[in-house]
């Protein structure tokens, strides 16, 4: 029997980030959501591509440039095929590109609703500690301490106390619990002598 339970958590955001712009139709700042649609125009050998957003208030559209006036030969074949097909996975990847969004607006709404898929990769429920490997395909707005509290069935104050006591270790530097989880992040939790060890192990995966 291993003294460590190893699990992988895949954390998937339910909601795409929403840039905030002044909407002429609404008469004020409004968040815009991705419509799920792409636009691709050809002008000779050059291409323009946009991801289409809609105002939350009135459905007025905003075309976010993906690229403009680019030679077709310079577009990766996989990206070009995805653009032409309107591939949903490609659209989702673009919608979560925060760097590209920040070049258009300083105000971006992020949301904390996530789905977490848990998979045990080693050890068993008799372990005295948990090692959690995080897979985060796209940025999420949820703080790490909130994620751990919700998924382990603990309070945020308990999560903080475990970290202070050295029983919860997370890579990523200071204040890491107050920041969103990152892809590839690892978490180590020691449960030896805890009365609710079995409940935490069961919740972990």
What do the pLDDT scores average to?
94
Q: Describe the sheet with the most strands.
A: 5 strands, mixed
- Structural class comes to alpha+beta
- Number of discrete domains: 2
Strand content: 35-45%
Span between termini: 17 Å
Low-confidence stretches: none
The rough form would be described as elongated
Rg estimate, integer Å = 21 Å
| Count of helical stretches | 6
Protein name: DUF1062 domain-containing protein
Pfam families: DUF1062
Please characterize this protein's 3D structure.
- Helix 4 packs across helix 5 (156-164).
- It is elongated, with a radius of gyration of 21 Å.
- A hairpin with a 2-residue loop joins strand 3 and strand 4 (46-55).
- 23% of the residues lie in helices and 38% in strands.
- It has helices spanning 77-85, 88-95, 98-102, 144-152, 156-164, 197-204, and strands at 5-13, 18-23, 28-43, 46-55, 61-71, 108-109, 114-122, 129-135, 168-170, 186-190.
- The protein has a 5-stranded mixed sheet with strand order 7-1-8-10-9. Strands 5-4-3-2-6 form a 5-stranded antiparallel sheet.
- With 205 residues, it is an alpha+beta fold.
- The protein folds into 2 domains: 5-14 and 111-204, no CATH class; 18-109, no CATH class.
- The mean pLDDT is 94.
């Amino acid at each position: 029997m291993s003294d460590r339970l190893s699990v992988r958590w895949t954390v998937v955001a339910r909601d795409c980030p929403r840039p905030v712009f002044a909407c002429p139709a609404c008469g004020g700042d409004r968040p815009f959501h991705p419509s799920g649609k792409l636009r691709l125009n050809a002008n000779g050998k050059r291409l323009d591509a946009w991801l289409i957003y809609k105002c939350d208030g009135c459905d007025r559209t905003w075309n976010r440039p993906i690229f403009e006036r680019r030679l077709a030969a310079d577009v990766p074949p996989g990206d070009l095929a995805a653009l032409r097909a309107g591939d949903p996975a490609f659209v989702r990847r673009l919608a979560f590109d925060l760097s590209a969004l920040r070049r258009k607006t300083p105000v971006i709404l992020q949301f904390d609703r996530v789905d977490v898929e848990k998979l045990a990769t080693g050890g068993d429920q008799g372990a005295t500690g948990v090692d959690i490997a995080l897979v985060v395909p796209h940025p999420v707005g949820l703080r790490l301490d909130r994620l751990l509290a919700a998924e382990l069935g603990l309070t945020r104050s308990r999560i903080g106390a475990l970290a202070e006591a050295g029983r919860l270790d997370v890579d990523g530097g200071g204040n890491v619990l107050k920041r969103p989880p990152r892809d590839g992040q690892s978490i180590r939790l020691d449960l030896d002598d805890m009365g609710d060890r079995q409940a935490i192990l069961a919740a972990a995966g």
